[in-house]
Every structure is written in C-alpha cells, then in structure tokens.
Amino acid sequence: MGTHVIKMPDIGEGIAEVELSQWHVKVGDLVVEDQVLADVMTDKAMVDIPSPVHGKVIALGGQPGEVMAVGSVLISIEVEGAGNLKESDNPAPVAAKETPVAPKVEAVVESKPAAPRTTPVCQGPMVAREANERPLASPAVRKHALDLGIQLRLVRGSGPAGRVLHEDLEAYLAQGQSNASAPTAAAYAQRNDEEQIQVIGMRRKIAQRMQDATQRAAHFSYVEEIDVTAIEELRAHLNEKHGASRGKLTLLPFLVRALVVALRDFPQMNARYDDEAQVITRLGAVHVGVATQSDVGLMVPVVRHAEARSLWDSAAEIARLATAARNGKASRDELSGSTITLTSLGALGGIVSTPVLNLPEVAIVGVNKIVERPMVVKGQVVIRKMMNLSSSFDHRVVDGMDAALFIQAIRGLLEQPATLFVE
C-alpha cells in the first residue's frame, strides 16, 4: 500500500490562499477517481476538488472555515501498490461558482459532479424532521406553504436533494395533513434550544462583500411607482401569440430592455468605480447582473451584451443563467463582469426595498411586486397594475438628480412600451 498526498491546488489568478468550505468525505471513506472531496472558496468562486485516484481517506488537512495556503496538504489517500508518493499539486479543480457581490439576497442546492451520493426519494407526502431543521425550498414555495398553513418541515420533498416543490405541497394537502387539523400540545410547547451556525464559505463571502459595499460606497436609494398595465398587456399578448414557439416572457426581459435604452442617455449609470485608483470606467457594453437566489446564497449571473439581445434572447439567457446558478453549475465567467444589476424578489418583492450596490458598480435597480390599485386617470378612478422600482446608487459617482431622471426615463419606457423599440 502507498499514500497519495493531494495539495491545495493553484486555482489561478495569483491566489495564494483559499478557504476550506466543506468536506464531502471523512477519514476511513473509500473514494473513487473524480469523486468530489471538498469545496474550497476563493475571493471569487467556489471550486470543487475531485480525487485523482481510487483509495481510502487516511487524513484530512484542515477544518471547514480554515484558510489554507496554496500548496499545503489538503488530504492523504491510501492507494494500492507503491502509491504515488509525489504530492498531487493539481487535482483539476472543477465547477467554479462565482460568489455574489451585491445585495440581492435571497439562496441553497448542492450539485456535485461524479460524487456517489444519494438523493432522497419521495416515498410519501409527509416526513418527520427536527423542529429546527430547515428544508430546502424556493422562496415561492415557502410563501405558498405559508398561504396554505403548511409547516414545510412536515412535507417530503421530491426535488433534487429533497427540495420541496409546489407539487409536494399539493400532495401533502391531498393526504389531509395540513395544519387545518386540531393543533397538538407539542405545537405550544416551550422551546429553549439554540443553534450556532459557523459563517464560512459562500455565506462568509456574501457577508464580507455586503459589509464592504455598505462601508465603502455612499448609498442612497430612490423609489418610484410605475403603471405597468400597458407593459403587462403587451407581455400577455406576445405570450399568447409567440409563447409556444419562442418561449414565455416574464417582466424581466422588458426591464432589461428598458435599462439598455435608458442607459443611452445616462451612461454614467453603466459604470464601475475603482475607488483606490479614483477612476470611473463607463462602458458601452451593457452586462446586466440578475440577482438570483440559490441554495448556497445570493448569486449574480450576468446577461452579457444585453444591448444586442431581443426580448426572447434576453428571456432565454436569464432562464438559462438562473437555472445554472441555482444548480451550482454557473461558471466563473457567467458570474462576473456585470456593469449594472437588476434585483427582484418576484411575488415576494414587497412595497419598498433598499438594495445594496454590487461593487464596483454604481447603480442597482430593484423591482417590487405588482399590485392592482385604484388610480385616477383623466379624472376617472380606474384599476391599474402598479409596481415600485426601489433603486440604489453610489453618491460618490451619481448625483441625486441624475438618479431620479434615470429612473423616470425607465418609468416612461415601461409605461409607453412602444418606445422600448423605437430607435
């Protein structure tokens, strides 16, 4: 028998040290070639470290949360024969996943290639979890469960890694397991349990960057309401006419188009500010970051060259990137390089928000939920679909008047949707 020692690989970009985020093996485990051993976090990305050999784990080189130097011993594996006693410096790290930089929150599903892990299989609508165990579910599913009066921890998830889906809620209700039944005494029992969660990996990077953004930039926010009745009618018409052949349109591609058109008159918003060099770089290309919640935290995949995309091209790219981010498969390039960011909490968008800048960008446009409200139009009270835009800017670079005019330009484009396509 021999020992194969794997060192912390050089991930590139001049990185000298990385954070050990998570182990996927323990001492005594048998591993196969290409099985994911650990996740490590750089300043920009989460990277999977696969095994280059078959063997048995005999030693781990660090603990989750520990910052390790490139070249330090990561793991030792016992192998058949004499073994490869020379240390493996580059076990081909894979599946780089960029850390989000901005404020958009919401997050956590795990997708690891070639690792022999099992996925929970749905065997019924109800499952017992610990009282403090948080099941995997999207924000929309959580709101749906809240509306239905269902405790998510009681619902068995049929999605990846046991994720609870909308269909699982329906199956739960069909079995008569909703909270409409008489509450048990346990529901009112006193609780004194505590849970400590170490802030490491992706969550630590998000925390650091959010703190950095609020400390370095001079944030100010501007909120305006928009009548989206006309744009919603156009969207419904286009979906009815072209949805089957070109795909369904959400509001997001229209917002991306509005950004592109408005930025022609406000190039100072499509910029990055290097506060150390004291240089503002305005860009002609519009690379729109779209804040996306994933199971590992907030990610900001980038729709590149939005200025050159049609509505359906933007819609397809947004959907592709969101899926890749949520599944942990977005590449480093797909998660970096944005020039302005769009953040939306969808149906949970609330009335007003104060998004945090995605440094080094100088503007972020936040979308709140659409609600029907009575409005006075030409002296008549009518029902209109209204939506707020809650946007933030870096006051070191963007003046308040310019920010207001920029948002008013977006408002005008969305309220008169034909102007989105007038060159």
Structure write-up:
- With 423 residues, the protein is of the alpha+beta class.
- It contains 7 helices and 19 strands.
- The strands form 5 sheets. It has a 6-stranded mixed sheet, with helices on one face. The chain has a 5-stranded antiparallel sheet with strand order 7-2-4-5-9, with no helix packed on it. A 4-stranded antiparallel sheet has the order 1-8-6-3, with no helix packed on it.
- Mean pLDDT is 83; it is low at 94-124.
Characteristics:
423 residues; alpha+beta; 6-stranded mixed sheet; 5-stranded antiparallel sheet; 23% helix
Q: What's the Cα radius of gyration?
A: 25 Å
Instruction: Output the structural class.
Output: alpha+beta
- Strand order within the widest beta sheet: 10-19-18-17-13-16
Terminal CA distance reads 72 Å
The backbone outline, from C-alpha atoms, is globular
Approximate helicity band: 10-25%
| Total count of helical runs of at least 4 residues | 7
Mean pLDDT: 83
Give the low-confidence spans. Answer: 94-124
Q: What's the total number of strands? A: 19
Let me know the largest β-sheet. 6 strands, mixed
Could you tell me the strand content as a percent range?
25-35%
What pattern of helices and strands is seen along the backbone? EEEEEEEEEHHHEHHEEEEEEHEEEH
